[in-house]
Write a structure and sequence with these properties.
By secondary structure, the protein is an alpha/beta fold. 43% of the residues lie in helices and 13% in strands. α12 (314-334) crosses α17 and α17 runs antiparallel to α19.
């Protein structure tokens, strides 16, 4: 995860995986058990106090100012209301030589983070000897044989304590169990109330992150300082230009890769059209050099499209020129390094998704996280035998590498793909309803091919509108499908969804995957974006898709034209020079964009020719 927006999206994504893994652990027959989160996305380790925990296989790059109350080693610190007030009062300290030191007060913690800390503090009461074990580990040299002896002694001590414990009467045991259940219910209610308050309290992505963060996960480049100017592609050049800086970042990637029994690929969430663009490019270059045959799926996350209602001014023209340069550099330098490159931005207004004009980053990032969760599900589902056995929770999964090949096409030179989701997904129509809808589309010349079931909200800029672009290949994921109030089995959903898509969409190479596991909806998911929770386990049916289309050709041609106009200004020339880009470098960027335009023109069945004037 590279950039602030990527980490906002990632926090929602990891909360959903944590929710699904928790439900699956307590109910192995639940559809969430088919999401292999603990095996693929999470790793098991122990914290500093020896308590077991699951942490994401994650490297997150961000500015220090974006962490809020989260420490740089991934630990949460219990500040408390009193500590917040005391720290704010003591923000200015005068030393013995009368030097005044101004210290910024700690970021205020949300009620949700404090509720998590209270819940986490209760875990430490399970063993009275935990502090002694921690002291011994600090005093002695850590050695594999010595660690084995310590674990043996610890287990022996637990067995001896259990044998010496007094017998508890059945009535007392029942009362204790009832009290524990009541305490657990009270803690859950307190956490739920705290989650509802997030709408007004969230300022940083760690404010609502539930999952633990490993101490090697966070990478905070020292030379990056937040500011109004941190919006250009090359702003992060100084943070990654040295070999030492690149190794400091990539060593974190190697740390998690070396733990894997089998490396399936990389998911990269990147804000590459902003200040982290150059850093993302160098990270992708390292991945391509060191893991040559490993598939990489990049979600290029963009801020919401600018509104066209406001009049343009001189400042707006500079910002628009910088945006055009950013997008051109990302398309020319980052996209070719990816197996599949998916530009995504939450639309300005999407009533179907619950978004309104001016929605906060907390809301828009949740929509993008739902798209990431839905579109990556096919290779995160547990693979079963080809036969659709009764009770199976998934039908027609696909491997990561196969999905990449599907979307890149036979030539393999067009990595761009468009994303779209329907959340919640409408119920699948009956056969009679499908026939009526087909008759209405034939009778109405104005009906769009995608009207009816399967219509999605486009999240890729330039791919919306009344007439969706013609697809070359599609990966469609149906999760928790329903019909007439009943949840369908994956086999039924696979058959009916495939038939409905074949009737409502143009023909193309299409892979449909169906799963009984709907989209997990944790407590931290914004309430306006999903229907009311139907049970204690939040879930919503959804349809997600990735589409390869030749419509990216004209978009890239327009990006090349916009780059040619933008780089002609004095301000743009000075900005590019400050990033280390010469005129020759930008000519190469234009040539790379034209090569991709030509690749899409060659791959287009109609043989359309795209040029700068399109």
């Amino acid at each position: 995860q590279v950039g602030e927006l990527a980490n906002w999206v990632g926090a929602h994504f990891w909360n959903a995986q944590d929710e699904a893994a928790g439900v699956a652990a307590s109910a192995p027959d639940h559809p969430f058990a088919e999401l292999d989160s603990t095996g693929l996305l999470f790793r098991y380790d122990e914290d500093a106090r020896g308590r077991g925990r699951w942490t994401p296989r994650l490297v997150a790059v961000d500015l220090r100012s974006s962490l809020g109350s989260l420490r740089s080693d991934g630990a949460r610190v219990d500040l408390g209301a009193a500590a917040d007030a005391a720290a704010a009062a003591a923000s200015v300290v005068e030393t013995w030589d009368r030097v005044r030191v101004h210290a910024a007060p700690p970021e205020p913690q949300t009620d949700y983070v404090r509720a998590l800390l209270e819940e986490e503090a209760g875990w430490g009461d399970e063993s009275g000897q935990q502090e002694e074990v921690e002291e011994e580990d600090e005093e002695e040299e850590e050695d594999e044989a010595l660690a084995t002896v310590r674990r043996f002694r610890r287990e022996q001590a637990k067995l001896a304590a259990a044998a010496a414990a007094p017998k508890v009467a059945p009535a007392e045991a029942a009362a204790a169990a009832e009290a524990a259940a009541a305490a657990e219910a009270e803690a859950a209610e307190r956490l739920s109330r705290a989650a509802e308050a997030l709408e007004t309290q969230v300022q940083h992505w760690p404010d609502y992150l539930k999952a633990f963060v490993h101490e090697r996960s966070l990478h905070l480049p020292r030379m990056l300082v937040a500011g109004e100017g941190f919006e250009g592609y090359g702003e992060s050049c100084a943070a990654i230009e040295t070999e030492e800086a690149r190794e400091a970042l990539f060593d974190r990637v190697r740390y998690f890769v070396e733990e894997c029994d089998q490396l399936n690929g990389f998911h990269v969430l990147a804000e590459d059209t902003g200040g982290f663009g150059f850093l993302t490019e160098k990270l992708m270059t390292e991945l391509a050099d060191e893991y040559t045959r490993t598939p990489v799926l990049v979600y290029s996350l963009r801020k919401r499209p600018p509104s066209t209602a406001a009049p343009a001014g001189a400042t707006d023209e500079v910002q628009e020129g910088r945006r055009c340069i950013n997008e051109a550099l990302a398309a020319a330098n980052v996209a070719p390094l990816a197996g599949v490159y998916v530009p995504m931005a939450a639309p300005n207004s999407a009533r179907a998704l619950g978004l309104v004009e001016g929605a906060s980053l907390y809301h828009t990032s949740a929509v993008l996280a739902a798209a990431v969760d839905g579109t990556t599900a096919p290779w995160r589902l547990r693979l079963r035998a080809p036969e659709l056995a009764p009770g199976m929770h998934v039908a027609n999964p696909v491997s990561f590498s196969t999905a990449i090949r599907l979307l890149r096409g036979s030539g393999g030179q067009t990595p761009f793909a468009a994303a779209g989701i329907a959340l919640p997904c409408s119920p699948l129509p009956t056969e009679h309803q499908s026939m009526e809808a087909a008759d209405e589309r034939l009778a109405s010349a104005s009906a769009a091919p995608s009207d009816g079931w399967g219509a999605v909200t486009a999240l890729t800029p330039g791919m919306g509108g009344a007439k969706p672009p013609l697809p070359r290949s599609e990966l469609v994921v149906v999760r928790g499908a329903e019909r007439e109030g009943a949840v369908l089995t994956p086999a039924e959903a696979l058959t009916d969804a495939g038939a409905a898509l074949a009737r409502s969409r143009p023909r193309c190479v299409r892979h449909v995957c169906a799963a009984a596991a709907a989209l997990p909806i944790p407590l931290t998911f914004p309430r306006p974006l999903v229907p009311a929770r139907r049970s204690s386990v939040g879930a919503a049916p959804m349809l997600a898709q990735l589409t390869s289309t030749a419509a990216f050709g004209p978009l890239l041609a327009r990006a090349k034209s916009a780059l040619r106009v933008a780089r002609g200004t004095v301000a743009a020339t000075a900005m590019l020079q400050s990033w280390g880009y010469s005129a020759q470098d930008m000519d190469e960027v234009s040539e790379q964009l034209q090569c991709m335009v030509d690749d899409y023109a060659d791959a287009d069945d109609e043989g359309s020719d795209f040029s700068d004037d399109d």
